[in-house]
Amino acid sequence: MDVRKIFLEYFKKNDHLILPSSSLIPENDPSVLLTTAGMQQFKPYYLGIEKPPKSRIATVQKCFRTSDIEKVGYTDQHLTFFEMLGNFAFADYFKEKAIQYAMDFILNVLNIPIPKISVGVFAGDNEIPADIEAINLWKKWGIPEDKIFKFGRSENFWGPAGDTGPCGPCTEIYYDFGPNFGCKKSNCSPSCGCGRFLEIWNLVFTQYNFNGKSFEELPNKNIDTGMGLERIAAVLNGNPSVFDTYLFKEIVHEIENLSNKKLVLFSNDKSNTNINSVKNIIEVNKCIKIIADHSRAMTFLIADGVFPSNEARGYILRRIIRRAIRFAKLINIDNIFLNKLSNIVIENYKNVYPELAEKKSNIFEILDNEERKFYQTLNQGTKLLNEIISRLKEENKNIINSEDVFKLYETYGFPIELTTEILKENGISLDFTKLNEYIKLHSQKSKNKSLFNKKIDKKINIYKSIIKNKTFEFSGYTENKSEAKILNLLKYESDENALLASKLIEGEIGEVIIDKTPFYAQRGGAIGDKGVIKSQDSLFLVENTLMPVEGLIIHKGKVIKGTFNINDKVSAEVDFVFRKDVSKNHTATHILHWALKTVLSKDINQAGSYVANDRFRFDYTANFAPTIEQIKKIEKIINEKIQQNDIVRCFETTLEYAKEIGAIALFDEKYKKFVRVVEIDDYSRELCGGIHVKRTGEIGLFKILSDTSIGQNIRRIEAITGMHAFNYFDNIYKIFKNITIELESEYENVLEKIKALKESYKKLNEEFLQLQIKALVNEVINNSIKKSINNIDIWFFDFKKSNFKTKIDTKNMGIIGDELINGYKLKNRDLFLILFNVANEKPLILLQCTKNLTTLGINCSLIAKEMV
Length: 868
Known about the structure:
single chain, alpha+beta, 33 strands
């Protein structure tokens, strides 16, 4: 049974818009590292910042939860990566319909008998009443009283995400595997946690708004539901273990082949020729489950653009890769194996998620590199740890220094869990309290974050009230100047706070909102337009244009002259030169994206951008640095496209058609029914709402200023176009021309002239240094502090007192010492030399002696170590 397909078909029949899964990397949402729930891509709709394309939506969403990493392997259900089937309603249906759809789907589509169903509901407390409506609805569907379990706020109430905001009760649907599973107690319930009851569907009723003091009923209520695909597959399979489902069967089978171990399922007989005890069964099961889960998770993360690193989501990926390798070693998988499992994942899921097949070579390359590197880490870390353990045993100690454990983790990437295990095998304990102190001081790698930012723009409620029941026209795609009427004004009291005002007077800073505007608002990486809004006697300088909520464009700036009132007729005019420069750079980012894929790899993907009028930056994913020749080639083919004056077409179409013609989906347009495609000739197609040139020739000139690494597998190109590129080359030409004048050389001979000068300088510097050293040798001979003990002459000289002290480094001190020692040999006497200096704020000490003294046992290196 294809649960994904029948779920979406069911809700499509019930008038839901079916949308694709969003990426595991949340788009335009810095509040969370990874997509953790089906509702996450709809966050702007819940906040009221954007309008949903339809009031009813259904999806199958890829999810990853870091909070469950430590639980994976210890239960039959916990996973890091999973698929969430969800239906959502925005001010449409509420509890009755939500429960109706869930029960109808479970009973009549999945054919699960009602005696197997139990539910959890909100019991209420002293602030919020019990969810009596949900209880009565469940009874109406035939759920008996004794199978309706009432829980408190921690279990059955969602939100608010911040200090205030939307929230509401939730209700869970549980599948009961029966009294022969789990603890087998007569009073077992979903709160037991023994495994008998499996939560399969959670329905969240966003019913209230918490204002900081009390809970108020929301006028527009929302529905957010989620059903785990893996869990419902386990139910249909009749076994609580998700690892016994079709979603894991091939992966588990390959792990069993590689390890020669077996996964003993919950309902299986635990007798096995290769496993002789329950303890072994549990350990082997744990390892196989962890490897199986993590192999899926790492494949999907890389396909969605996550690269292994030591920060944020890259650290999470690296952690699960290393965790899979570590547990593989525990069941005797010692060879490279990750790509074998990843290939199974790709083959099993490529029809549902085609990006897996598209990124296959990239996935394999990253996993292979990471796996080989970590094997080196394991070998190096194990060797160092064994040395520490041997030393402790020699000293009859059984407690390891926590700092040593942390150093293994921080410096070599050696897992603390593996260190702990090896220590335990050797009877050595670890002070975890002290270790945790070290870890807290270390930069934080991964943490659970709220789905919503707590710090939402303080003006957001004002904007939402403005846009309610109003429409605003954007005319900027076709014109730079529009006649309009002022609908709202905001006056700034501070940088963060603004209030609605009836007028703005000369000198005041604020925001102007008009019914029709040609000003493009900052989004998609491109900065907002600048310009003026004016009437006959007044002038407002627009310094930035923003879109705080979907469909609402605000003009932020200052009144330069006169007064502006609500309902004034005004003229809104964009700074044409500024916009033109931004549009040149914006179109250039699209050509650059194409060029990177063409020259470097088709697996290159955009990872962010910033488009201004004077330059732009373009971030892209790459696990290697391009060569100088490749950068030159990228510049060349982009300038060729500019010279060809290719046509740039912008048009609106459906998301489905945009995908059919190969448009690259980026940013906000991804989830709208109709999207704007920017097409350059026949080689570049991207979804983009920005302002662009009409032909590539308008860009004029393109120059890359730099290509640098800004993180693990993320690089940044900074570039310029048009007159800014011309001015750049013009400045370089002026500098070069001045160099030719100073060198009295023709252009073509400059390089040879510079090389000759460098050689001449080097030779003169060496000759001068030799003269300095000769002078310093004499200075040491004449001005050293000298003593003679048992016919051994001891000289001490401090170069800080010399006129040449800044020129004397360790190398030159050695040359001076050699001159003195060799000269002393002629006297057939013994000399012990001590030379001292401070260079670059670091003390330098040189000890040297004649050969005869070394035969007597004097070791300058040992003496120097003692001095340090």
